[in-house]
Design brief:
The structure holds two protein chains of two kinds. In chain A, about 80% of the residues lie in helices and about 0% in strands. Chain A is mainly alpha-helical. The chains are: A mainly alpha, B alpha/beta. The complex binds adenosine-5'-triphosphate (ATP) and magnesium ion.
């Protein structure tokens, strides 16, 4: 098998288009995971058992079952209940939901690291629960965990090939289609691997920078 | 009386201050953690502007009493009144029909908490805010006063505690004694009528204890605040307090003016405690 440059240049644009879909899915899934994860972490800390227990149970369930199964479930079973969504949207929701249960653990660690005295001072000063969270607790809980959250963006990105299972035209799906038409898989799959590598490296670089930036902030 | 404009004088402006009505009334307060009874059917009345020192062995319930008053712990039984108004209860919807009080909701607790300020052993300043912001945050967001007015108030109070020049500093840049003085200013900025101090010098280096005690001394002398202070410093309790309460196993075992309690304790437990403390 020899590398065919002409073929590589021919499929590259299609794969770059698919890269955009992939990055969009990863970012959208990450955004959902960031917001939903925080809500899960807060709900699990609630003193209302009717809230904390079901949320804890659902989160544990989602975290300990494979993302692929969840994607199939969302894509093939949910329409039976009347929830019909595009493959892309289904994929984004699947990624967001699954990774929210991981970011929730990260948030939990951040919240746990805030001393109890900060909550007590907030009660003594009569802050509302919302103001306590927004102005006192989260500004202390979030900065230390932002790099860890960033690593989950890379993890989500690397899980996007699973979306090919539900017909999303992300990079892996496009590479497979191209390969099956020409029986030449080497070039498209190699390019996909390289693109993953490049995007991951760039993300890691940005996260590292952010981490250093937060480090200097905290020292002052 | 010299009153800094930053503080309100609770007695002034209350035309018919009922001398007989206590500022704080604990009635039959009990609190247990699991099987450990920490407060045991405790009664205590505190007069307006009275300064009360709480002393006693570790675990005898002193902090818990302050925390119940600050609504950080809910008592199992009993009632607390602040200037005649129930703290952990409020009038039921039916009013007089049901004849009674129902457990307080969050809104009632928030309203009642405005009367009480607390200073903690560990300061609990907000580390991500400057000194000025620490002191203005609650007046602005809880009392809803303007930012300029809140900052003016904060400056006066930081002047009072001798930290006028540290407005822009972060807590980590201050010594323990300075942090604790900021914490006192932060609590005062809400203009509480009652101030609670829970071993506020216990976490301090010995050389900075004095500066914090001086601030409290000044407050006690110049203002009409009702003050409750848990302390292990008998010397300070003696000069600061109008009354000293000796706690033992969740009850007040003996109480009286400092002179009497320190010089002529009646109870054997008090005598033993004082002997142990003064020897160490
Ligand atoms: N949240 C809690 N859960 C379980 N036990 C608690 C809790 N808070 C306090 N206690 C226990 O209640 C007892 C009384 O505590 P409290 O802090 O009121 O004592 P104290 O008189 O302030 O003692 P110290 O002088 O050591 O501060 C202690 O044995 C303490 O361990
Ligand atoms: Mg204590």
């Amino acid at each position: 098998m020899i590398w065919d440059w002409d073929y590589a240049f021919a499929v590259a644009p299609k794969l770059l288009d698919a890269l955009i879909v992939t990055v969009q899915a990863a970012l959208a899934g990450f955004a959902i995971a960031l917001v939903l994860g925080l809500l899960i972490a807060l709900a699990r800390r609630s003193r209302f058992l009717w809230l904390s227990l079901p949320v804890a149970g659902a989160a544990e369930f989602i975290r300990s079952t494979p993302l692929l199964v969840q994607l199939y479930f969302l894509f093939f079973v949910m329409p039976g209940f009347g929830f019909q969504m595009s493959p892309f949207l289904t994929g984004v929701i699947g990624l967001g939901l699954h990774y929210a249960t991981y970011t929730a653990e990260v948030y939990r660690a951040g919240l746990d690291a805030v001393p109890r005295g900060q909550w007590e001072a907030s009660v003594a000063l009569d802050f509302s629960p919302f103001h306590t969270l927004r102005a006192i607790i989260l500004p202390q809980a979030l900065p230390p965990v932002i790099p860890v959250l960033g690593n989950y963006l890379i993890a989500i990105f690397k899980d996007t090939p699973l979306l090919s299972a539900i017909t999303v035209l992300e990079m892996m799906q496009v590479a497979k289609i191209e390969g099956s038409e020409t029986f030449q898989y080497l070039e498209p799959l190699t390019i996909v691997g390289l693109l993953f590598l490049i995007v991951s490296l760039i993300s890691a670089l940005l996260i590292g920078r952010l981490e250093r930036h937060l480090g200097t902030l905290r020292r002052t | 009386m010299t009153t800094t404009s930053a503080l309100r004088d609770p007695a002034a402006g209350t035309p018919a201050l009922d001398a007989a009505r206590p500022m704080i009334r604990f009635k039959g307060i009990s609190k247990a953690f699991g099987s450990l009874t920490v407060l045991d059917n405790l009664d205590l009345d505190i007069a307006p502007a009275e300064k009360v020192a709480l002393i006693g062995p570790s675990g005898s319930g002193k902090s818990t009493l302050l925390r119940v008053l600050m609504t950080l712990e809910r008592p199992d039984t009993g009632s607390i009144e602040i200037d005649g108004a129930p703290l952990w209860h409020m009038p039921g919807k039916g009013g007089a029909k049901n004849g009674g009080l129902v457990p307080a909701d969050a809104g009632h607790l928030r309203e009642m908490r405005k009367n009480v300020g607390m200073v903690f052993q560990q300061f609990n300043l907000f580390p991500h805010m400057t000194v000025l912001r620490n002191v203005t945050e609650a007046p602005v967001h809880v009392l809803g006063i303007g930012k300029d007015e809140a900052e003016a108030r904060a400056r006066d109070l930081l002047e009072l505690v001798g930290l006028r020049d540290k407005l822009g500093h972060y807590p980590a840049q201050l010594s323990g004694g300075q942090q604790q003085r900021v914490a006192i200013a932060r609590a005062l900025a809400m203009r509480p009528r009652v101030m609670l101090f829970d071993e506020v010098t216990s976490a301090l280096d010995p050389e900075t204890v004095g500066e914090v005690l001086n601030v409290i001394r000044k407050l006690a002398e110049e203002h009409n605040l009702t003050m409750l202070m848990v302390t292990h410093q008998m010397g300070f309790a003696r000069e600061f307090a109008d009354r000293v309460c000796f706690f033992y196993q969740g009850r007040i075992c003996e109480q009286g003016p400092p002179d009497q309690l320190f010089n002529h304790p009646r109870e054997e437990r008090t005598q033993a405690f004082l002997r142990a403390v003064l020897e160490s």
